[in-house]
């Protein structure tokens, strides 16, 4: 059964821009699917719809068998972790406070949330004693990205949405972050949608690749080997 299912999803923005058109996609539990394609082909719009930051103008989206428009928003926050380029951190909050954002929204016990945040910072390779008290501007790009991943994992969601998660760092750091994330994913087995405009990253990271074409539909949805062979 699909963990994420998009059925004939479309999005037309109020100004008339048709960003996504009749998009259907199934992602199995524990699978990492990369969405790849040129700028402006609807990848970010798709991610925002799955995270319910914006509503589709047609079609349906199911997560774990449930229509997201009929899921309690708090429950959806617990189900989905969202990672964006540059980490998307709150600039006036420390690394530790950024990492506990979602558990705080979910009204977790403060001590439990902080202990969990420290474990996660460790997991992504940041010593919590050294980095927990810093502010985002006191980190390198790669470190901000690591905090973004730790924050997204804080409430242990089964689904991770990652929008150009390694886009804002230099190639050497990107390579290291990709390797580390693959290692983490082998352990955690999240259901992941990862957006990239880089075909090499899509091939390296994806169990399957959804190749987007201009106009917001999928041209090909297959394994890296099959996509490379065409
Ligand atoms: P990608 O992530 O693949 O670069 P986007 O989903 O960001 O693509 O954008 C898809 C299309 O929708 C583009 O033509 C973009 O200009 C347009 N678009 C994105 N956001 C909006 C918006 N809020 N209002 C109008 N058009 C938008
Ligand atoms: P990277 O190779 O990971 O991109 P940078 O060259 O950006 O690293 O940063 C190197 C080190 O300097 C990192 O350990 C980072 O924590 C630290 N650093 C970067 N900017 C600041 C800052 N504004 N205040 C304190 N430390 C910083």
From TrEMBL:
Annotated ABC transporter domain residues: 4-230
The organism named in the record is Yinghuangia aomiensis
Q: Which domain of life is it from?
A: Bacteria
First and last residues shown, out of full length: 17 to 246 of 410
Protein name as catalogued:
Betaine/proline/choline family ABC transporter ATP-binding protein
Q: Please provide the record's keywords in A-Z order.
A: ATP-binding, Nucleotide-binding, Transport
Q: Where are the transmembrane segments?
A: none
Q: Which GO terms describe its molecular function?
A: ATP binding
Q: Does the keyword ATP-binding apply?
A: yes
Q: Which family does the UniProt entry place this protein in?
A: Belongs to the ABC transporter superfamily.
């Amino acid at each position: 059964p699909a963990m994420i299912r998009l059925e004939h999803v479309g999005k037309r923005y109020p100004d008339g821009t048709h960003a996504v058109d009749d998009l259907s996609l199934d992602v199995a539990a524990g699978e990492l699917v990369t969405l790849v394609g040129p700028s402006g082909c609807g990848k970010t719009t798709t991610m925002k719809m799955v995270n319910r930051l914006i509503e589709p103008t047609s079609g349906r989206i199911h997560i774990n068998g449930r229509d997201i428009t009929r899921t309690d928003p708090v429950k959806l926050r617990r189900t989905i972790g969202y990672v964006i380029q540059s980490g998307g951190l709150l600039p006036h909050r420390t690394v530790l406070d950024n990492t506990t954002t979602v558990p705080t929204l979910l009204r977790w016990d403060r001590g439990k949330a902080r202990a969990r945040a420290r474990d996660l910072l460790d997991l992504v390779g940041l010593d919590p004693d050294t980095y927990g008290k810093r502010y985002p501007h006191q980190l390198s790009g790669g470190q901000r990205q690591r905090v973004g991943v730790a924050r997204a994992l804080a409430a242990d969601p089964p689904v991770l949405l990652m929008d150009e998660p390694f886009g804002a760092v230099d190639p050497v750091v990107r390579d290291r972050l990709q390797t580390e994330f693959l290692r983490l994913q082998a352990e955690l087995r999240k259901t992941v949608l990862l957006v990239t405009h880089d075909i090499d990253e899509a091939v390296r990271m994806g169990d399957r690749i959804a190749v987007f074409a201009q106009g917001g539909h999928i041209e090909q949805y297959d394994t890296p080997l099959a996509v490379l062979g065409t």
